[in-house]
Write a structure and sequence with these properties.
With about 350 residues, this protein is of the alpha/beta class. It is built from 12 helices and 6 strands. It has 2 domains: about 160 residues, Glutaredoxin (3-Layer(aba) Sandwich), CATH 3.40.30; about 160 residues.
């Protein structure tokens, strides 16, 4: 019944979209934003508004079956690219399961955090989707409505000027140095993921040329990485195989190698036993990396925070990834307090 009610609202909004977006109640504006949660997260460790105080947060409710949501996703991706380096967090919440959402999010290029299996829409009184709320640095709702409304982005920009959000002094927007470091370590999938998020500064021809060279190098490495995946698969090293195939899809999207890798990934996911082994491999790898980072904690605190943030980004939905995110925040807060 709830989905039917929301679907009716979606249809009404869609029919009205030619001239104006459907009117939305703003019952929460001026009030504390209800906490959010989700069973699984994509592109991020688990998020909570309480832990994001000091940031400006966009909470958007959506679904894969919603046509207007599909239209708003590219706009949210552009906002993420534009404002994520300025202390703005964007999260998309849906009540659908990860198994259904993950392939859709990949196809749509959703690089911002996505919460699956979320029941938070009820607390926000959502009756139609897509529905977004802008939460200020104090945790209060300052705007809510359809994310394609003309005043959505202008309100966000005004709020950034009114209450500038906290921006990490350690981890900023992806840099060419980060990408180059990943390439040097032969972490080609990681390099490809970072490259997808990197924004070439306007008029910076050198940076534009360097990104083109990196992209070409990644494509050139794709056949070898695919071969590594096939070798690991033959040896029944399923986690290594999965990582290699996933890397190929990032390194050379739309290539013959990527299509082969995608087919292999589907085969691995279809076998529940293999799927479980892959997840265990991710957890073990993340645990080992976290232990290594913490062992070097006192040597270079700033580097430790960055390493922890990178780990949390690389291994979302793992215990070590969540622990790394919490530890990074605690260390950052501690350093900020010491500097004040």
């Amino acid at each position: 019944m709830r989905r039917l009610g929301i679907l009716v609202s979606v249809l009404v909004a869609t029919m009205a979209s030619g001239v104006a977006y459907a009117a939305e109640a703003s019952a929460l504006v001026g009030k504390a934003a209800p906490e959010v949660s989700a069973q699984d997260w994509l592109n991020s460790p688990p998020l909570a508004l309480q832990a994001l105080r000091g940031k400006i947060v966009i909470v958007e409710f959506w679904a894969t079956w919603c046509p207007p949501c599909r239209k708003s996703i590219p706009h949210l991706i552009e906002l993420y690219k534009k404002f994520s380096g300025q202390g703005v967090v964007i999260m998309g919440l849906t009540d659908e399961p990860k198994a259904k959402v993950e392939p859709f999010a990949k196809d749509m290029g959703m690089i911002y955090p996505v919460g699956c299996g979320s029941k938070s829409s009820g607390a926000y009184g959502v009756t139609g989707i897509p529905h977004a709320a802008i939460v200020d640095t104090a945790g209060n709702v300052v705007w809510e409505g359809h994310p394609m409304q003309p005043d959505f982005e202008s309100t966000l920009e005004a709020q950034i000027k009114k209450t500038p959000p906290k921006v990490s002094q350690v981890k900023g927007p992806t840099s060419l140095e980060d990408i180059a470091a990943a390439m040097q370590k032969a972490q080609f999938g990681r390099a490809a993921s970072l490259l997808a998020k990197f924004q070439v500064p306007e008029g910076d021809t050198a940076a534009k040329n360097q990104t083109a060279r990196i992209r070409k190098a990644l494509v050139a490495q794709a056949p070898a990485r695919l071969a590594q995946g096939e070798k690991s698969l033959a040896a029944k090293e399923y986690y290594k195989a999965s990582e290699a195939f996933q890397d190929v899809t990032l390194m050379a999207p739309d290539s013959a190698q990527a299509k082969k890798a995608e087919a292999r990934l589907k085969e691995l996911q279809a076998d529940e036993k293999i799927k479980a082994e892959v997840e265990q491999g991710r957890e073990k790898t993340a645990d080992a990396l976290l232990s290594d980072i913490l062992n070097r904690e006192k040597v270079n605190p700033a580097a430790t925070i960055k390493a922890l943030e990178d780990l949390a980004e690389r291994f979302p939905n793992t215990k070590a990834g969540a622990a790394a995110a919490e530890k990074a925040k605690a260390l950052s807060d501690s350093r900020a307090g010491a500097n004040n």
